[in-house]
Amino acid sequence: MNECLECGATVDAGDDPMVGEILACAACGVELEITQVGPIVLGLAPEIEEDWGE
Ligand SMILES: [Zn+2]
To answer: Per the structure, how many domains does the chain have?
Structure first.
């Protein structure tokens, strides 16, 4: 079972979780990134910056 890092709510990683996948917590809306699978480790997803890239 995976828990949200922000609020502790259960986060469903789906049937086929993959590293790098972004999950949104249904309870608080924070975005969590799967950093490891088997067992699953969740990290806070980096905030998307508009000037990312160029
Ligand atoms: Zn949460």
So the answer is: 1
